[in-house]
Amino acid sequence: MNEMVAVKRDEAIIETAGSKIIELIYQEVYDHKANVYKWVKRGFDVVASSFALIVLSPIFLITALAIMMEDGGPVLFTQQRAGKDLKPFKIYKFRSMYKNAESQFERMQAQNEQTGHAFKIKDDPRITHVGKFIRKYSIDELPQLLNIIKGDMSIVGPRPILLQQMEECNAYEKQRLIVKPGLTCYWQVGGRANIKWEEWVELDLKYIKDMSITTDIKLILKTIPVVFESDGAY
């Protein structure tokens, strides 16, 4: 009987007064992760990101020049994203869209090819020629190494979406950001934009359960070939 209760508790959705109350269980899962792991994870984030910024500096320079030559400045794009516990932070990316792209966001909603609370268009007309290339190989995401050093993000963790989109999620979906968002995750190595929102959420919650040094290393190593394959990157 206790085993049956435990199973039901794991995915509990209680109907009451016409509304859904979702029992939050992933915070408890995260709280039980060893503090040593959390300290090692943060230390690795800072050291690895600092090293990557130095090694990848030529790619940063070439990318910045390419963006300037095609569409002028600014080179970097910043935007409010949802961080750990839905705390907003300013994310850094290489600008891959034309300068007026943000003003067209509402108009483009009807063409959204993702489900749920995410937004993706495979042939988004707002993307520049340089933007298509740097998105294909995830070069546009490299400035997020700065977010990692600042403590907004981790190398491994759920990908951050727009703050407004995350606030529209239900309580069950919001659990994906009990942890810091990251550069790579199960979604990133499993098909990226080819994965629909509902499965995306489940993969992020699976990461919270699986979090460990071994899991993080495996995901980082899987990310390298996935970037070059560029499957689902747009």
Q: How does this model look, in words?
A:
- The protein is mainly alpha-helical and 234 residues long.
- It has helices at 2-10, 26-31, 35-55, 57-71, 105-108, 129-136, 144-150, 163-167, 171-174, 186-190, 197-210, 213-229, and strands spanning 13-16, 19-22, 76-82, 88-94, 154-156, 182-184.
- Mean pLDDT is 84; it is low at 1-23.
Features:
single chain, 234 residues, mainly alpha, two-stranded antiparallel sheet, two-stranded antiparallel ribbon, 12 helices, 49% helix, 12% strand, globular
Produce a short descriptive summary:
The protein is mainly alpha-helical. The chain has helices spanning 2-10, 26-31, 35-55, 57-71, 105-108, 129-136, 144-150, 163-167, 171-174, 186-190, 197-210, 213-229; strands at residues 13-16, 19-22, 76-82, 88-94, 154-156, 182-184.
Order of helices and strands: HEEHHHEEHHHEHHEHHH
Mean pLDDT: 84
Head-to-tail CA distance between termini: 48 Å
Q: What topology, given as strand order, has the largest sheet?
A: 1-2
Radius of gyration: 19 Å
Number of helices: 12
The rough form would be described as globular
**Main sheet attributes: strand count, strand direction, barrel closure:** 2 strands, antiparallel
State the helicity in percent bands. Answer: 40-55%
Class computed from helices, strands and strand pairing: mainly alpha
Strand content: 5-15%
How many beta-strand elements? Answer: 6
Poorly predicted parts: 1-23
